[in-house]
Amino acid sequence: MTENILLCGIGGQGTVLASKLLAAAAMEKGIPVMSAETIGMAQKGGSVFSHLRIGEGIKTPALRKGTADLIIGFEPGEAVRMIDYLKDSGSVVVSSTPVIPVTAVLSGSGYTGKEAVEYLRDNVKNLTVIDGAAACREIGSPKVLNMVLLGAALNKKVLPFTADEIKSVMQKRVKPQFYELNCLALDYAAVQERI
Questions:
Q1: In angstroms, rounded to a whole number, what is the distance separating the alpha carbons of residues 75 and 45?
Q2: pLDDT digits (tens, 9 = 90+) for 39-76
Q3: CB of 54 within 8 A of CB of 73?
Q4: 46, 118, 150, 157: which could join 42 in a potential S-S bond, CB 3.0 to 4.6 Å?
Q5: Residues of the chain with pLDDT under 50
């Protein structure tokens, strides 16, 4: 069975690192994996998305529309932009916290992300919404949203890995001084569910 995962967000949110950790976890388990990132104009503010395919018989890293088992959306508008990739039975894990584009600020458009989250609520059967800003505040760093969202996906059992498997590859790929903080973020959703 092949798992098709799409991660999307804004430059600087850690989308590519999250994708690389998932790919590394698959390799550690001996599962074939292919990935491709599109980062374009992603230096802090541009769209970033990663296609990740895990399993036997993969010929290309690119997902076709309507085939994603999971979309992890680091920004609600970006998740809406990629929703055509989700298959009917697929799941979405998304942060409700918007990253307001400069163009929206300059034009006074009033984008808050709420309309994107409502669109997802109306159109996705298996949706998990995380208040990313609140989670990052509680953990103590604005740079752990990627691990919070990965943890939420792990908690919902929509990834073919355990938290320990992700922590194992994280230990090899994240600077030692940030490892514990990232582990806290990865465990955030599971801890919140137990409270």
A1: 11
A2: 655 456 678 899 999 999 898 999 999 999 999 999 99
A3: no
A4: 46
A5: 42, 195
Whole-model pTM? 0.92
Half-sphere exposure of 80 (CA within 13 A, CB side): 16
Greatest alpha-carbon pair distance for the chain in Å reads: 50
- Nearest residue to 6 (alpha-carbon basis) of 95, 76, 67: 67
* CA gap 39, 18 in Å, rounded: 14
d(CA 25, CA 133): 27
CATH superfamily of 3-194: Pyruvate-ferredoxin oxidoreductase, PFOR, domain III (3.40.920.10)
The residue extents of the domains of the chain are: 3-194
CA 174 vs CA 20, 99, 150, 161, 170: distances in Å: 11, 24, 15, 18, 5
CA distance 171 to 31: 20
